[in-house]
Amino acid sequence: MMDHSNAHRFSVAPMMAVTDRYFRYLFRQLSRRSKLYTEMYVDKTLLHQQDNLHNFLSHRAAEGPLAVQLGGNDPDTLAEAAEMCEQWAFSEINLNCGCPSSKVSDRCFGARLMLDPERVREITYGMIRKVTRTPVTVKCRIGVDDKDSYDELTTFVRAVKAAGIDHVVVHARKCLLKGLSTSANRTIPPLRYDVVHRLAQEFPELEIVLNGGIDSLGAVNEHITGTGEWGEYGGGVAGVMVGRAAYFDPWTFRHTDSAVFGSSDPGFTRREIMERCVDRFTEMMQEGRREGPECNRTRHLCLGTVTKPLGYLSSGARGSRTFRQELSRAVQAQSKIDPDTDDFRDAVDRAMALLPEGVLDEPVGDTPECAFGSQVRDD
Ligand SMILES: Cc1cc2nc3c(=O)[nH]c(=O)nc-3n(C[C@H](O)[C@H](O)[C@H](O)COP(=O)(O)O)c2cc1C
């Protein structure tokens, strides 16, 4: 049985159209211990798609620790959706209070919820009461629009704490609901790590996880151990969540298990990971076709969906662009595939042939010393 303790130390952020089952499987070949998040699912979508939940929520125990993220603003429907998710055995249910997308914030959920801490207290209280075995957590920003003072942030954090939340992921940037696009809201407002470290110091009873702009294991460990330069708040945070860097350069995180958790790394080469992905993705597509409802039976047959997560496994390495271009060319030539044929495997084989053997078979390399001093051990 995999040890899920301390999984909060390193997590991969929920990302729409990225952290689907395919990407998560790929990342699992690099780290068994990290906590992974699903994409955000809107509560009402899940409630209206009861006959199609396999497509959203299905996963194997080996995919864990896996948290599901919910979006919404209605205490009743969120509690109902949380109860439903609990039946699918996620290790955590997370409420999105950080998404600035106008599609989301016009409906008053995502980051807009931070403007109404009382409502979030009510929502999270209702979710916690409905689920008995699964921790409920919150992901938020450090502020929204002009409500960006430290006091306003702590009012929000106190409200969710009063509801019984003890784990808060904080994206270390405020967001602007008007005037900045969703992607600009991930780059333009400055990162304020000091604010998140202060929160961790002043709320030691909470697990405060820092998110935003982290792109190396060295940085992850600096934040956890509190050895970086974060102003006067040096105690460290409970964990770090990484988003874009894990997607655009997953190989960088191949030593997560040893460096952050003190256990052994899976140790697969890129070639082994790609081969495992081709096998498992094919199975997933076949399962999706069997178990999904009639109207959705083609959903998992899009070649782009299954090649997308593989595209960045060789980021930064020689041949990486040509490899990605070949995958895109294959998708343009044939967007739909039949999972009972070798179409997907052939497309990946053709692209892999363009990567140098030194890249495909590069050893994972030495296990770095764990920043926490634990011995590397096999789980
Ligand atoms: C493509 C994309 C989709 C995202 N979707 C979500 C989402 O569904 N829920 C959420 O809470 N945050 C979402 N985010 C924000 C990330 O979870 C994360 O907070 C943000 O990217 C900052 O972390 P990073 O700098 O490590 O990428 C998304 C980010 C990206 C790039």
UniProtKB/TrEMBL annotation:
Sample GO molecular function, one term: tRNA dihydrouridine synthase activity
One Pfam family in the UniProt entry: Dus
Annotated EC: 1.3.1.-
rRNA-binding is among the record's keywords: no
Presence of keyword Protease: no
UniProt keyword list: Flavoprotein, FMN, NADP, Nucleotide-binding, Oxidoreductase, RNA-binding, tRNA processing, tRNA-binding
SUPFAM superfamilies: FMN-linked oxidoreductases (SSF51395)
The protein's name: tRNA-dihydrouridine synthase
Organism annotation: Ectocarpus siliculosus
